[in-house]
Amino acid sequence: MKRTLVLTIDIGNSQTAIGIYSDTKVEASYRLVTNDKTTSDEIFFRLNELTKHFGRKPREFTHIGLSSVVPQLLRPWVKALNSYFSKPIQIVSSKNCLNLPIAYPRPASVGPDRLCNVIALRSMGLSNGIVVDMGTATSFDVLHNGGFAGGLIMPGINASMDALTEKAAMLLPVSIKWTNKFVAKNTGDAMRAGILHGFLGQLDYLLNGIKKEIGIESIHVIATGGWGQMLLKRTSVIKKYDPYLTLEGIRLVAINGNGFNDIEDME
């Protein structure tokens, strides 16, 4: 079997995650700040820096996969990737998601990162499962009977803190860390307790609601995203954390996708 070296890019609203896979193993990963004003030239030189740091030449990469929830960044990234690697780019979309059934009236409206999460979950041999992706937003992505059944989206932890401090004049930003008190004795701990313990309460309630709605009480729940590991030890409803789950979905599309990358049709 031919060995693969796959570059995966997940462009999120706040950060862009990049993973390099040797076959199925993550050999390196990087996080960049997402800048919606970046140019293809800037991306080209950043790619050059990253591949040199990793110690590989562009021609050594066998597959390139790209997912983006920032539509205006698709063009500069595709242009830079095509120029640097001189090979086709697999862009994750509802039309390039390994024949994953999508239970949306408008499948194109589903975020490609959510599709990647469910593709990765399905690749584990599961027909049913839930991914809780904790980033700028927190999404609950449901795999049901082998397809993307939908889910829900709510503000992420950072977004909740930002909204609180922006709208309340007397509340200043604080570091987000655990406090075991529910009845806090200072304003900073009151904010931390409200956001973090409140998030755990939502997590339990929402997961129980999803399980009841799809009629499956015992279901595999996996967390990913920047806040997943911080919350894992505080809840019994999530059994596993995988920081590379979305990138794994991109890797699978990069290798097995149908090649659809018509940006005009995706927008």
Largest sheet: 5 strands, mixed
Query: Helix coverage percent of residues?
Result: 25-40%
CATH fold title of the largest domain = Nucleotidyltransferase, domain 5
CATH class of the largest domain: Alpha Beta
Number of domains: 2
Proportion of residues in extended strands: 15-25%
Spatial sequence of strands, sheet with the most strands: 3-2-1-4-5
Unreliable parts: none
CATH homology group of the largest domain = ATPase, nucleotide binding domain
Number of helices: 8
Oligomer: single chain
What is the terminal-to-terminal distance? Answer: 37 Å
Which SSEs are present, and which pair or pack?
Blueprint: E1 5-11, E2 15-22, E3 25-33, H1 40-54, E4 63-68, H2 74-85, E5 90-91, H3 112-123, E6 129-134, E7 137-144, E8 147-155, H4 157-167, H5 187-214, E9 220-224, H6 228-232, E10 240-241, H7 245-256, H8 263-266
Parallel strand pairs: 1-4, 4-5, 6-9, 9-10
Antiparallel strand pairs: 1-2, 2-3, 6-7, 7-8
Helix pairs in contact: 1-2, 3-7
Tell me what the structure shows.
With 267 residues, the chain is α/β, with parallel strands linked by helices. It has two domains: 5-94 and 250-266, ATPase, nucleotide binding domain (Nucleotidyltransferase, domain 5); 107-248, ATPase, nucleotide binding domain (Nucleotidyltransferase, domain 5, 2-Layer Sandwich). Helix content is 37%, strand content 23%. It is built from eight helices and ten strands. It has helices spanning 40-54, 74-85, 112-123, 157-167, 187-214, 228-232, 245-256, 263-266; strands at residues 5-11, 15-22, 25-33, 63-68, 90-91, 129-134, 137-144, 147-155, 220-224, 240-241. The strands form two sheets. The protein has a five-stranded mixed beta sheet with strand order 3-2-1-4-5, with helices on both faces. A five-stranded mixed beta sheet has the order 8-7-6-9-10, with helices on both faces. α1 packs across α2 (74-85) and α3 crosses α7 (245-256). The radius of gyration is 19 Å and the shape is globular.
